[in-house]
Amino acid sequence: MVKKHILITGVSGTVGFEVLKQLIDKACYDITVFDKKTKTSIRKLTPYQDKLKIVFGDITDPKDFDEIKTPVDVVIHLAAIIPPLADDVPELAQQVNTQGTKNLIEHLEQHAPNAFFMYSSSISVYGDRVKTPYIKVTDPLVPSEGDAYADTKIASEKRVQNCKLNWTIFRLAAIMGNHKVSKLMFHQPLNTALEIATPQDTARAFVNGIEKQNLLSKRIFNLGGGETCRIGYAHFLERSFAIFGLGKLDFPHHAFADKNFHCGYYADWEDLNKIVHFRHHTLEDYFKTERRKVSSFKKNMASLFRRPIKWYLLKQSEPYQAFKRNDITRINHFFNQNSKP
What we know:
alpha/beta; 2 domains; 341 residues; NAD(P)-bd_dom_sf; 12 strands; 7-stranded parallel sheet; 42% helix; 15 helices; globular; Epimerase_deHydtase; 3-stranded mixed sheet
């Protein structure tokens, strides 16, 4: 029996690496990974080099695809520049996320026209849903003002839908696991409805989808953890702070934005789950995993230094800094009229 040839991009990322591990565990696929050559990608991929073909390259340079063995049966395209870097350097996000996707599709159309193209999009394409938190695939795509990442995903989705390949698109909810604290923590309003999915469940959706092409073909799905993975953002932070020994969520007024972010509850998440049966984890599973990561020593040290840690975090808050500087343009971006200073 000839093994299906699977191509994965962005394999050194959190979801990509989980996809790789699950595919290797199945031991029934011929795997090629395409990723930029970095210390991280070398460290992650070297232990598996005898089980797959590694192609190091730059997705913005079409010539780098020439080393990919063809034909390719399935492509799981996860490579992307994500926030906050996507917001800080939108030109780079456009080059990698949009132009890179276009380059890859054009290469496949020429060299692997029968490939099934699985594209990873984002909940960010729906924009600010604080007032209307329940989201369906059929909802309009209205990205938040200044969300360069969402803009690249919307443009890429259009390119995918207009390509000659067989395709499917998964719009990922908030993927929680191995994430790092950044200034984005303060961009998200505290009253945001938050639905998460673990990297393992997210990867499982792509991996299980390989054998479900007939049911996924030319369709778009919302990928989230469902009812048992939902929580208000303020409550999510409170529980996270408690796990890490940081005490209460006692930041000053205007530390968190009121608007112009994204996230919400996927009202139609079950549509994808019924096909690929990816959901194994709940929100409580996520918090249990986080607790296991934090040793008593780390938690005690964080508790001892919680005030300077919170002071450092607050300095990362762009809404708060805009408030302190009385930067009217940024204040208008982050805050509603009734809550502006």
